[in-house]
Amino acid sequence: MTTADFYIYKIKKDGQGNIAGVRIRRVDVDQDGKITVKGSRYAVKGLICDLLKTSKLKIQTAAYSKNQKLWTVLNDVSLVVEGDKEYLRIDGERTLKDDLGTLPEFL
To answer: Per-residue pLDDT for 8 more than 90?
Structure first.
């Protein structure tokens, strides 16, 4: 099983509804499928965009179920560039907005 380098699990939006930053975690999965969650960090959107531009890292979205104490991997995160604007997307659709699915927002 291949794993991402980072998982985005919460987002922070600016006044226009665009993503300003994200909460990311490093999640390791061993060969038996056991998941080990590493520490949480805040990252500004620009940093995530720069990491995706390198094409050397894999970033996905993930969700945590408190009841089951279980992380679920959701979607690959991609970078879409339109002129001088950069958008984080969970698919290859080229719309003029950020879209990381139904990830919860944090303050």
So the answer is: yes
**Beta strand 59-65 pairing with 85-89:** unpaired
Tens of pLDDT, residue by residue over 32-61, are 877 676 788 999 999 999 999 999 999 999
pLDDT band at 30 (very low <50, low <70, confident <90, very high): confident
Contact yes or no for 37/25 (Cβ under 8 A): yes
Domain span at 23:
6-89
Cα–Cα nearest to 71, from 80, 61, 81: 61
Give the residue, 7 or 92, on which the prediction is more confident.
7
Between CA 75 and CA 91 the distance in angstroms is: 8
The token pair at 11 is 């987002």
Complete DSSP assignment for 29-71: E-TT--EEEEEEEEEEHHHHHHHHHTTS--EEEEEEETTTTEE
26 belongs to a structural domain = yes
